[in-house]
Amino acid sequence: MRLLTALVMIAATVGPEAGGQQSPSTTAMVLKGRAPVSNEVLKVKLPRPQESDLPNGLHLMVLEDRRLPQITFQIIIPGAGGYFDRPEAVGLASYTASMMREGTKTRTSPQISEALETMSAILGVTSGLSGTQASLSGSSLTEHFDALMDLTADVLLNPSFSAEEWDRFRTRTKATLQQQRTNPSFLASETFNRVTFGAHPAARVSTTAAMLDTMTPQTLADFHRTRYVPDHAVIAFAGDISLAEARKIVEAKLGDWKKAGVPKPTVVDPPAIGVPKVYLIARPGSVQTTLFVGTQSMTRTDADYTALTVVNRVLGGTMGRLFRHLREEKGYTYGIGSGFSATQYRGSWTATTSVRTDVTEPALTDLLAEIAELRTTPIPESELADGKRALVAGFALSLENPQQVLGYYLDNWTYGLPADYWDTYPARVSAVTAAQAQAAAKQYWDPSRLQIVAVGDATKVAAVLRKKGELEVFDVDGKPIK
């Protein structure tokens, strides 16, 4: 039985004038083949996963779906993310996760890859530089799933952290660390996170070669031993499997994963953001200027989460105001958008684009004007309705994928959301008013909190950027330029 199908085409509308600035005109755009849409609020009741707790603290979650002979799984381990890396060892969590796939006490890295290829299966281990969790995830046909879980258990419980594999990995990583400094988007992200989050772990976007050299196979093994524990973890399955079958396979394959008796990991919010400034990373000869405009956002459980989601969709979503104005009308850029992160601690909101050097000033001026207009002027009802329908339609389409539905329930588990959170999501989005959307923009996009980061040719854009605020200039290695 199909969960849900929805098809919605969204029509763009034109915002009003505000603050004496001309609103973007989109009269040149023609949207064809618009499908009729319903104004009724989408009503859904998602299938609930079956859940159980195991003696070692592991929480089991199963969303049974017998439509296809396929099973996917995910293991989430709080406390094993880069958030918990020491400041002098940024990247340790991420590299520990990566190395777990590079060999176990009984299998070499090539043998693991060959086994997965033979089964046409997927298995990965990830941990972000600033996230709080590590994750193992995989999928296979039902007939191969027992073998996949054998391999998963070996990777999870018995990684070898071979010195030979580590040397190869470290060499590759050092080359990547050098190359990323040639990428303007990386340079902008690095500076933006630093000025937005300060010394908080949320600022981490990369490590250094010096930090990498302090890490050894033993360092990785110690992190794995102390952090990869089942006490507060979850294992979730979606697909051709029942709760009883899942419990049986978990007990058989992960029976040796012993409870460690550690407390539940906790996090803190980053400090308040500093005064607004303009930061330029000088990249001589650059023919483009990469722009990041943003600030801190909110936690995932913030009461304004849905309102900010809606107003952000109007501003920087597909066919949003930034796209229509800066790309379609003015031709400043090939791509532009905005988005925000919200986790257990306050995340960030950013609008990002790259523009030709010669249009840096008008592009940045227009970008800031679009943000300001949403703060000062309510969104016209038709435009607001289009944005909300787009969000609900995307959600509706996602429900066709059992793995995505399970992902929603993993969000519930991670952030302590209500059991019916996703059943009521369309209604909450649809209920956001123009006043609520404007209030969210006014609060979170206050110009006294906005930081501007640019990467480009300083000889051509520094004077332009000084018009927008106090300017600090850095080289591509992050060193101040006087």
Q: What does this protein structure show overall?
A:
The protein is an alpha+beta fold and 482 residues long. It has two domains: 50-253, Metalloenzyme, LuxS/M16 peptidase-like (Cytochrome Bc1 Complex, Chain A, domain 1, 2-Layer Sandwich), CATH 3.30.830.10; 278-474, Cytochrome Bc1 Complex, Chain A, domain 1, CATH 3.30.830.10. Helices cover 39% and strands 16% of the residues. The protein contains 16 helices and twelve strands. It has helices at 92-100, 109-119, 145-157, 163-179, 184-197, 209-214, 217-227, 243-253, 305-316, 321-329, 360-376, 381-398, 402-415, 425-431, 434-444, 458-466, and strands at residues 50-53, 59-64, 70-78, 122-127, 133-141, 234-239, 278-282, 288-296, 336-340, 348-356, 451-456, 471-474. A six-stranded mixed sheet has the order 1-2-6-3-5-4, with helices on both faces. The longest helix has 18 residues, at 381-398. The termini are far apart.
Structure characteristics:
globular, alpha+beta, 16 helices, 482 residues, 6-stranded mixed sheet, 2 domains, Cytochrome Bc1 Complex, Chain A, domain 1, 12 strands
